[in-house]
């Protein structure tokens, strides 16, 4: 008889973005290992990004439980158009925030702990406690953010003898945007206490990066396993690469993730290289922060910009496969060393070179080097970055711009699901 595993997630199709794809893919492959996944998600979630194409990837005959959730963002949207951008993670620099924006951030940070979905914890716990007993569930998996979902797992664990895996797609108290939420000392303490309770009462912790594992090891003695995000074999074909020398960033490019070192390098190259000026194009595919656009204007790059906004996952894969170079940008902060964006793994199998910029010692640097899929630069390596762009452009002109990736198989969704299966079976 198959083991039954209950997966508690906020993000599920028609939600778009990388957060939904991790568990959508696990659910796809778990039945191959005699594990029956049962998904629990909101029936009326206020998703900041919608991608209806992902509905087609939901496996047939999968049990999906849905219960309503109270969404404070829905109410706030009636009063301010800025709420939607904040819910997407697009937060302006402090000196550019309006009074309503500052107030909303303060309320979000101090009245909704750990996050704005906290009101779903109690009704979900009540519903699932009965369901688990009635349907003989072996294991409960909670995935966050939103980290309030881990509180559902915590309360269920306190009531029932059930195995609980807490999956952290991002860190909790050290995630970059926490510093922008105007947290009081009391709120910071509450976050720390809740984080500690989850980490010390779950049977197994799963994280997506080695740095997060190291961080959590200082808080708990419970077993912690790194299962990164990964790639699936997408049935998307592209016949030709872009004719122009395209540098493409796929996904949200938030205001805090503003690589002025790159814009400056591109501007200088354009001013000194007529061939580059004629061939260059910058593709930004996804949500783009206002500060990014302002910086592109400052460096006279607007004329080279192709800004498409959010596209479906299949369209995003097409952009990845036809672009000459793929951009990966991370905030220059100690807090972001642990962030490994889900798109990195799709980048790695797109057969296009990656140009990545991030903090010194970032986990993404090790991955890119290990797989031979591109080049990584920190924010102090201006000359080296500029030189690499010119090297890539020369290869583009000679039609030799390519990549020879190695060791990618272990990041396939099937291989990663096998790691998860081993954890489930060993509980």
TrEMBL record:
The keyword Transferase applies. The keyword RNA-binding does not apply. Pfam families: Glyco_transf_4. Residues 108-234 form the Glycosyltransferase subfamily 4-like N-terminal domain. Gene3D superfamilies: Glycogen Phosphorylase B (3.40.50.2000). It comes from the Bacteria. Coiled coil: none annotated. Keywords: Transferase. PANTHER family: GLYCOSYLTRANSFERASE WBBK-RELATED (PTHR46401). This is Glycosyltransferase family 4 protein. It comes from Mesoflavibacter profundi. The lineage of its organism: Bacteria, Pseudomonadati, Bacteroidota, Flavobacteriia, Flavobacteriales.
């Amino acid at each position: 008889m198959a083991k039954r595993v209950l997966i508690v997630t906020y993000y599920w199709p028609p939600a778009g973005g990388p957060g939904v794809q991790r568990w959508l893919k696990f659910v796809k492959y778990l039945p191959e290992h005699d594990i029956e996944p049962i998904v629990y998600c909101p029936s009326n979630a206020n998703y900041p990004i919608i991608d209806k194409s992902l509905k087609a990837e939901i496996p047939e005959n999968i049990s999906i439980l849905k219960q309503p959730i109270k969404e404070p963002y829905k109410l706030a949207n009636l009063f301010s158009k800025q709420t939607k951008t904040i819910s997407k993670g697009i937060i302006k620099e402090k000196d550019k925030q309006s009074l309503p924006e500052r107030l909303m951030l303060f309320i979000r940070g101090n009245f909704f702990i750990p996050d704005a979905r906290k009101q779903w914890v109690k009704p979900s716990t009540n519903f699932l406690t009965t369901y688990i007993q009635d349907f003989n569930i072996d294991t409960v998996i909670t995935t966050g953010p939103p980290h309030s979902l881990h509180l559902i797992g915590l309360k269920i664990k306190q009531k029932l003898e059930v195995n609980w895996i807490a999956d952290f797609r991002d860190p909790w108290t050290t995630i970059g945007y926490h510093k922008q939420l105007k947290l009081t000392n009391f709120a910071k303490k509450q976050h720390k206490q809740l984080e500690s309770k989850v980490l010390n009462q779950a049977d197994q912790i799963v994280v997506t990066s080695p740095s997060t594992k190291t961080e959590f090891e200082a808080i708990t003695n419970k077993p912690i396993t790194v299962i990164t995000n990964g790639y699936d074999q997408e049935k998307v074909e592209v016949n030709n690469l872009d004719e122009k020398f395209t540098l493409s960033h796929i996904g949200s490019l938030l205001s805090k993730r503003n690589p002025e070192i790159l814009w400056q390098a591109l501007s200088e190259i354009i001013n000194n290289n007529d061939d580059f000026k004629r061939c260059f194009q910058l593709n930004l595919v996804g949500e783009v922060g206002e500060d990014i656009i302002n910086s592109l204007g400052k460096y006279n790059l607007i004329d080279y910009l192709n800004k498409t906004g959010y596209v479906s996952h299949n369209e995003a894969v097409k952009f990845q496969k036809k672009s000459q170079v793929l951009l990966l940008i991370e905030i220059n902060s100690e807090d972001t060393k642990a962030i490994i964006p889900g798109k990195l793994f799709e980048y790695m199998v797109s057969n296009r070179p990656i140009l990545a910029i991030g903090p010194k010692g970032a986990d993404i640097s090790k991955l890119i080097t290990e797989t031979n899929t591109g080049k990584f630069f920190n924010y102090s390596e201006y000359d080296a970055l500029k030189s690499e762009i010119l090297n890539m452009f020369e290869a583009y002109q000679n039609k030799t711009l390519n990549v020879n990736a190695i060791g990618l198989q272990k990041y396939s969704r099937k291989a990663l699901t096998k790691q998860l299966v081993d954890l489930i079976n060993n509980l």
